[in-house]
Design a protein that fits this description.
single chain, 255 residues, mainly beta, 15-stranded mixed β-sheet
């Protein structure tokens, strides 16, 4: 159950930033299962804010456990990102989480001209400036930046997409491998999807590097519909449970 919202946020694809795949008001809600147990929910919502005298996208992501899972392992996560509507570059991120007693309370402020991030840690009452790569994304903005990849629909099986992402005070290469297309049954009907396999670090959380599989809608929205993960202990599945405010009508083959 750890890093539930982080896992959800990773899964979409893109390269050249535009505003075609999403718009202000888009909302996703995911139902998360740990084995056969309904373990919790995660949500993502696009709002609007102002940074540097410009209107920007403000995305708020929340993750939380429910029922008996909450009793045994409480998760209350809040992730936010402010990023430019035109370029997709992030201005600021917020990460405030409580995952079974593991807590973080941070904000990061990007200086894209100098390629640095000022990280303020409110839990430890510290701050530091970290050098990053050019055009780096945060854990939330990467989800939206990547949904507009100009070459996704032309990808061949086995090809990968990579992007630099700032997470846990360092830059990592987030990489997705395209593994094919499949029609899946959802609560909204049968939807054509593209399947991706994010490469993750094997060990404490995941069984191996290719432990995750992601299904996204094979249409203009690139909506994440399903995620499956083989964990070091047990398995996790997340399904899209509710959506609204899409930029385009979700293409449903049959109900």
């Amino acid at each position: 159950m750890k890093r539930l919202l982080a896992i959800i946020m990773f899964f979409a694809v893109g390269d050249v930033f535009s505003q075609d795949a999403f718009k202000t008001g888009e909302f996703f809600k995911f139902r998360i299962h740990y084995g056969i147990v309904n373990a919790g929910y995660a949500t993502l919502e696009i709002k609007e804010a102002v940074r540097s005298n410009k209107k920007v996208h403000h995305v708020v992501g929340k993750g939380f456990t429910t029922g008996m899972t909450k009793f045994f392992f409480k998760v209350e996560d809040n992730y936010e990102s402010y990023f430019d509507k035109g370029t997709g570059k992030p201005y600021q991120y917020v990460r405030k989480i409580d995952e079974g007693g593991y807590t973080k309370n941070q904000e990061g402020f990007f200086n894209q001209d100098n390629n640095t991030v000022l990280v303020k840690d409110y839990k430890h009452k510290t701050q530091k400036t970290i050098s990053v790569t050019e055009n780096v994304q945060d854990i939330v903005s990467v989800f939206y930046y990547l949904r507009n990849h100009s070459a996704v629909d032309k990808m061949k099986v086995g090809e990968s997409i990579g992007v630099d992402m700032f997470f846990d005070d360092e830059v990592t290469k987030f990489k997705l491998k395209f593994i094919g297309r499949e029609d899946i049954s959802t609560k909204f009907g049968t939807v054509s999807t593209m399947m991706f396999r994010p490469l993750v670090q094997a060990g404490r959380v995941f069984k191996e590097e290719e432990s995750l599989t992601v299904w996204i809608s094979d249409d203009e929205n690139k909506v994440p519909l399903r995620i499956k993960a083989s964990l070091a202990v047990g398995s996790l599945k997340a399904d899209l449970d509710e959506y609204k405010g899409l930029a385009h009508t979700l293409k449903i083959k049959s109900k």
